[in-house]
Design brief:
mainly alpha; 15 helices; about 0% strand; globular
């Protein structure tokens, strides 16, 4: 496992120290054990896949991050200043949203991709940014948020959403819509401020529609292209993002049917596709891709049905953990549960049309937030048990 930054290394050491020295931390982990267990299950399955297919050691670089974030999550049981953390997330949202504006209007980048990753990172960057937008909106809605902080969170939502639209990433933006609607409904049901909720929802929807319909028609055009590309897809016509995805999914399904139980190994889809292209069984248009642009197909290709089951558990178990606390009487517990549900919801929906765990940036955000929020809820439930 490689610690890439000093802050991550410090957080890792703090988490280890908390687990060793603080009984309260260990008790919080006991409450959150289902979330930790399913993360470990996914890591163990990846190790088994690595051993069974005799893959290169580099294959374990990404899965091994799980151990890092299992330790970092323990730091969420320390007496942290929640206001500072919330402001930090919103400032990060502002920074990343502003990066999109800079890349588009100063550098002339057609689809902004953030601080690293290049052109291919636009989709995952949009998902990452929209997760932060949802967290900022949640903080803006919380009753204990001060007016200055509320304005900061609202500004982060506006800049982050605009930046996400500039990426022209259809999958994350379409996934964002039902998750955002769910957040608004949860807020309305909990606060009973239906008029405020409807006003916020209308402003957000109107703003996004105005931006996409006037300033950035290319987003509308990209959405309009989807049905046409799907209808015209064939073995002789695989050009275009949608057709290429359909061709990759076709190859992924073929690989799965050939190896339904063991798969072909982690990160081996690109090797398989190039072999099929050489044999004339796949379009050369997808020879450049190393993943099938679907997290669900990725798991089926890499490890067959068992891997798909592990992935579903990896998403569903934390989802159930947070859903059980969504109506908790303690506002901080309910807000943490809402945050966890939104994170998982975005990843689960985006996973249908793109790989969401194949790079360090999006996987790190998922593990950091899901494990951290679960342990934080565990601590709060220990201190104030449900009656």
């Amino acid at each position: 496992m490689r610690l890439k930054t000093a802050p991550m290394a410090v957080a890792f050491l703090i988490g280890i120290a908390a687990l060793i020295t603080r009984r309260e931390t260990r008790l919080a982990w006991r409450v959150a054990w289902p979330v930790a267990a399913v993360c470990l299950l996914r890591l163990l399955y990846d190790i088994g896949n690595f051993l069974g297919h005799r893959l290169a050691w580099s294959t374990l670089d990404l899965p091994a991050q799980t151990l890092l974030f299992l330790a970092i999550a323990a730091a969420f049981t320390l007496p942290l200043k929640q206001r500072v953390i919330a402001i930090g997330f919103s400032l990060t949202t502002v920074l990343l949203g502003a990066t999109c504006l800079f890349q588009r209007y100063v550098q002339g980048v057609d689809r902004p991709y953030g601080l690293n990753g290049g052109d291919w990172a636009a989709v995952e960057f949009a998902m990452y940014l929209l997760v932060l937008v949802l967290l900022s909106m949640l903080q803006a809605l919380r009753p204990g948020t001060s007016r200055p902080d509320r304005w900061l969170h609202a500004m982060a939502v506006a800049i982050g959403l605009y930046g996400a639209v500039l990426t022209q990433s259809r999958g994350p933006l379409l996934a964002f819509a039902p998750i955002y609607l769910g957040l608004m409904l949860w807020y309305g049901l909990r606060s009973r401020h239906w008029r405020r909720m409807l006003t916020l929802f209308a402003i957000t929807v109107a703003g996004m529609l105005a931006v996409t319909a006037t300033l950035h028609r290319e987003m509308v055009d990209r959405l309009a292209d989807v049905p046409a590309e799907m209808a015209s897809y064939s073995a002789d016509d695989t050009t275009g993002a949608v057709r290429e995805r359909m061709e990759m999914w076709h190859m992924a399904w073929q690989a799965f049917t050939e190896h339904p139980l063991a798969g072909i190994g982690l990160d081996q889809f690109g090797v398989y596709v190039r072999e099929q292209v050489a044999l004339g069984n796949a379009s050369p248009a997808i020879a450049k891709y190393v993943h099938p642009h679907s997290e669900y197909f990725e798991s089926m290709v890499a490890g067959g049905l068992p891997a798909l089951l592990v992935l579903l558990l990896f998403l569903a178990v934390p989802l159930g953990f947070f859903a059980r606390q969504l109506k908790h009487a303690d506002e901080s517990v309910a807000a943490a549960a809402a945050a966890g549900l939104m994170v998982i919801g975005m990843y689960a929906l985006c996973g249908f049309s793109d790989n969401v765990f194949y790079r360090a940036m999006p996987q790190s955000l998922y593990l950091f937030l899901v494990l951290g929020l679960a342990v934080s809820i565990g601590q709060q439930l220990r201190n104030a048990p449900i009656r």
